Amino acid sequence: MNWIYLITAGLFEVVWATTMKLSHGFTKLNYTIMTIVGLALSMGLLALAVKKMPMSLAYPIWTGVGAVGSIIVGVFLFGDKLSPLTWVFFILLLVSIVGIKFTSGS
């Protein structure tokens, strides 16, 4: 269950980062509210995950899921352009997240 909390927390990190951009500096109330709710859910689920998981495992995976998800949203929703070298580092980030999970013993 801790892994579900952790991955869901990472996904809500993507939600709040995306809605924060859509809020245009917190000037659009509906996106501002979604940002606050997404942030609260992300942090709350992370807190549940670290109750039973080592922080040295949970935090990097949480931030990694958020980073990977934000890159994907940026490219597909906002039309961000990434260089080929950036894509290489994106793949390395994915490999790192998976590697941390599989070498952690959890």
Q: What does this protein look like?
A:
It is a single chain. This protein has 106 residues and is mainly α. It has one domain (2-103). 82% of the residues lie in helices and 0% in strands. It has four helices and no strands. It has helices at residues 2-22, 29-52, 55-76, 84-103. Helix 1 packs antiparallel against helix 2 (29-52). The longest helix is centred in the middle third of the chain and has 24 residues, at 29-52. The radius of gyration is 15 Å and the shape is flat.
Furnish the topology, listing elements before pairings:
Elements: H1 2-22, H2 29-52, H3 55-76, H4 84-103
Helix pairs in contact: 1-2, 1-3, 3-4
Membrane topology: Multi-pass membrane protein
Pfam families: Multi_Drug_Res
GO cellular component, one term: plasma membrane
Features:
EmrE-like; transport; mainly alpha; Small_multidrug_res
Q: N-to-C terminal Cα separation, in Å?
A: 12 Å
The low-confidence runs, each spanning 5 or more residues with pLDDT under 50, are none
Question: Radius of gyration over alpha carbons?
Answer: 15 Å
Number of helices: 4
State the secondary-structure class. mainly alpha
Q: Helical amount among residues, as a percent range?
A: over 70%
Sheet with most strands: none
GO molecular function: transmembrane transporter activity
Transmembrane segments: 33-50, 57-79, 85-103
GO cellular component, one term: plasma membrane
Organism: Companilactobacillus zhachilii
